[in-house]
Amino acid sequence: MGKKAWDIAREKRQRAASGTCDTTDAGTLGDAAAGPACAPLSPSTVLYEDAWILAVNKPAGIIVHGDGTGAATLTSQVRALLAQRHGASAPCVRELQALQRLDRDTCGIVLFSTCKETQAGFDALIAQHRLRKEYLAVVEGRVPWTERTFTQPLGRDRHDARKMRVSPSGKPAATRVRPLAEKQVDGRTCTLLSVVIETGRKHQIRVHLSHAGFPLVGDVLYNPTVRRNEPLMLQAHRLTFTHPVTGEHVAITAPTPAWTIA
Asked: What is the SS3 string spanning 155-177?
């Protein structure tokens, strides 16, 4: 990452901190791409922040980007929080961009860029698979192996536009799974897993595990025995990477969700 980009980001943050940016009311903010104006995200959900990126703990039930329905988005909530802190015209507010996407019902860490000059470095980090992503998941049944890597390619399901499936003509995918503990969920035996994905295909964890006969608890798309009102037990739990601007090792961990407790 060039020194110029570093300096620009630092100068932007210093201007915001000195109060030289406008302080338009955050409640008036709206973004056609990110969703309508909405209440700010709770500051307690911020897991990591520096002059270039921000990581938040996404709750289940909200989308990251706008989908054309006018629903509130995580991006719009984060933008409102930053506007509340720094003013609506602050560069970090105007240049906010989600670097990752999580499904609506998946909870956990989502990383945002707050500086356009350095965003390319973080985009490259993700595209080159230099960001390690670990998930927590609870699946139906007792998993019989100590560790396993699934490598079946994944493609779109031609019979259901919402779904993905294992397909010989699909894109390469790799999911590494390690059982952590058995637990009881509403009287049935389930297994808590640590899952590390080496690729970022849509629904990758959900498809690989359901194809292996261990669908996620609460998965309405891939679990044929899903129960009503049961949450999807999948969390983006930990991210680790070498910061492309500072060169430092960064580790971000989300609080462990209640459903992991046996």
From this structure: EECCCCCCCEEECCCCECCCEEE
